[in-house]
Amino acid sequence: MILAYIDTRPFLFVLGIPIVILLTFLGCAIVKSRVRRWKASAGTLTLYVLLFAFFLYGPFIGQTKTREYMMSWEIKPPHLHGEANQGTQINAPEVIFSFIEFPEHFIGYHSHELAGHLKKNGKEEIKALIEITSDYGKVRGYSVLEIAGRKSWPNEWSFGGVSGSPQRSPWD
Q: Global pTM?
């Protein structure tokens, strides 16, 4: 869905301005306030701007924390993705990382360089550094910063997932 990639907060802010002004005029008319309507509108509009900025751009949005996880890994050969007659061939091996502490959760990449690095490293368990971004305490996303000492690698495809119904998550 394309709307998932659009930040709607500016649109909500602009749409809210006439609504706040209209409700202020309506409130002043109902209460028969002696305060001039433009003064009441300026006050409520200022309050609206401050509250909007605090709750939708403030300290609760975009919280990041970096965690280090021990992970196991396996390498699978390249294979066809998608339906049988419309699949796309990915020519890089599939590298799947499973969290040691959370074995139902995994992250994967299709990357020749990452597979080569892990084979050369030779360790069955490696460290991964992951940055987790959350809004109001709910995870928005994560980004793998480093795997087994490697900070960047070209990949054709990446994915993450879970198997079963785990009780705990690495993102909590």
A: 0.70
